[in-house]
Design goal:
Layout lengths: L2 E3 L6 E2 L5 E2 L2 E6 L4 E7 L4 E6 L11 E6 L5 E10 L5 E4 L2 E6 L2 E6 L5 E6 L6 E6 L4 E5 L4 E6 L2 E7 L6 E7 L2 E6 L14 E7 L5 E9 L1 E7 L2 E6 L4 E5 L5 E6 L8 E3 L2 E6 L4 E6 L2
């Protein structure tokens, strides 16, 4: 049973001296929630739930619909997925990264219109779109894919990406959250990942903020670029000088964060919850 609890705990104090707002709500009872996306046109939240092993194609994954207040609208809006992770809206289609496939899901019905299988892909992870094109990361192959006009093609493969996870189109560049180099069996790394920038014109890779951690989600609220560290549960704000300041500490498993306006959506993958919180 999926429950929602209203939490009125004390606000978290940031290491920058600011105060992170109290939680709006926490929705719980999900099985491995990985990514949350606010569908502004339909005033709802879409949540991907892996349901089981994030690396296994078992047909158990699903998408859940929630209201802006955190109430579950439809616990089985889209079913039959494997291990769905990142999502992005492009027109009337929801794109969902699912291991070796990219799903096109009808936003009106939740039905899968098409699943594009890519044998070269191993662990498709996050998706970002500007409304015309989309980019998808592959955590295990140091690769980025591009989706446009229904075609899904390999765009960049480079070891400098160091297990790319979160992706975010931002002012003419593609921000990429590196998980880090030297991936271990427990998904920790020998070296922490950095926030990277890839030029959309030249595909040149540069470092925005080095050595943050195992970056999962990336979003922007006004001038603040925010990233999540899945392993530690840290939430970081990236300054214009490339310095990452930790603004809040959550439990391990802070996954693919997103935002709408000043509201953050924080999927807690290991806790089975989705937190809504205003920023700052």
């Amino acid at each position: 049973m999926i429950k929602k609890t209203m939490l009125a705990g004390l606000a978290l104090v940031l290491n920058t001296g600011a105060v992170l707002a109290e939680e709006n709500w926490t929705a719980g009872g999900f099985d491995m929630p990985e990514s949350a996306l606010f569908d502004r046109a339909r005033n709802r939240i879409i949540l991907s739930t892996i349901i089981g092993n994030p690396g296994v194609a078992d047909g158990q994954g699903s998408l859940v619909l929630l209201s802006p207040e955190g109430d579950v609208i439809d616990a089985n809006w889209a079913v039959g997925l494997d291990a769905p992770k990142g999502m992005a809206i492009l027109g009337d289609v929801l794109l969902v990264a699912d291991l070796t496939r990219l799903h096109e899901i009808d936003l009106a019905t939740g039905e899968i219109r098409r699943s594009i299988a890519m044998p070269e892909a191993v662990f498709l992870n996050d998706v970002t779109s500007d409304g015309e094109v989309a980019f998808v990361s592959d955590l295990m192959t140091d690769s980025l894919w591009r989706y446009a006009d229904g075609a899904f093609t390999l765009w960049l493969s480079d070891p400098q990406l160091a297990h790319p996870n979160g992706v975010f189109l931002d002012e003419g560049r593609l921000l990429v959250g590196s998980w880090g180099a030297g991936l271990r069996d427990d998904f920790t790394t020998e070296t922490p990942g950095s926030l990277l920038s890839v030029s959309l014109d030249t595909r040149e890779i540069s470092v925005v903020a080095p050595g943050i951690g195992n970056i999962d989600g990336i979003t922007r609220i006004d001038d603040a670029i925010l990233v999540s560290d899945w392993v530690t549960g840290g939430l970081f704000e990236i300054g214009r000088d490339g310095v990452a300041a930790q603004t809040a500490q959550f439990a391990p498993g802070l996954a693919d964060i997103s935002s709408d306006g000043s509201t953050l959506y924080l999927p807690m993958m290991l806790d089975g919850t989705l937190i809504s919180r205003d920023y700052p």
